[in-house]
Amino acid sequence: MNIQQRTSRRKWAITLTPILLLIVSFYGITYGSVSISLPEIWDVFTAKQQAVHETIILNLRLPRVLIGLLVGACLAVSGALLQGVMKNPLADPGIIGVTTGGGLAASITMILLPQFSYLLPVAAFIGALLTSLIIYALAWDKGASPLKIILAGVAINALLGAVQSGVMVIYSDRVQSILPWLAGGLNGRSWYHLQFMAPYALVGLVLSLFAIKSANLLLLGDDSAKLLGQKVELQRLFIILLASLLAGAAVSVAGLIGFVGLVVPHVIRLLLGDDYRYLLPLSAIGGAILVVFADTIARSWFDPIELPVGILLASLGAPFFLILLKKRRLL
Q1: Which of 10, 33, 41, 208 is 20 to 30 A from 48 via CA?
Q2: Would the pLDDT of 177 be above 60?
């Protein structure tokens, strides 16, 4: 792809993705077991609505769509940051164990400490953050190379998975309470969940803008970045912690949703290149679009069953990822 083609693609992406985001958001608000037209939505916001439409839109669908937007943006940006700092397109919050850490903390809270269920989002966030710090500490040896971080992350991910399986076996009579969480989904999410998640998510997304320069410089290699006066290890730690904050915020309300942080940034990178000035914001928009669209399909196309969006994304994301791998685009 030449420079002119890439520039043209970037202009089209910057123009079209926000429009697509609005379309998908309206789709999420209007479509479901009860379809609501755009004029009826307008009536809701101009106080001419029917009470049932007001309840459906304002109390059920609108908070769910907004949470889906934030969850998708957080997971995609987290994946984009990790792929860049580790120089590996396979890196994402799920593979290196960050989301697993959040999921384990949430599972323990739900199974062993159900009386503190109101602290579930806090537990998930702390679990994700502690996992990232442990991984970085284990990989540290006069510096933390991307390869060491990935290897440490894979090992920690396996360990956390084993611990979670053990907890589920020991407390098998309580497993039903955490299955929806492990599947990943937005069912039952409300304004309360949005109010808790939004500060963490928005702070993380804003801080990610300040990581653009560092992420671009780290793509040049550690030696080149050091020659340009960059504190490589400090920047790498900052980006990893930032990615953990974003993943923890998403996990805290949506559970273990996979493939968003892996597929979305990689597709954007294939189309538009590695420049984080475009990759990061467009990954955020792309992740938001994917999660909201997939969640709308999961809750409406399989009526009367509501399929967890995590299952749908895994079913679609895994074959797509394997196709990319088969074509050697990930290598």
Answers
A1: 33
A2: yes
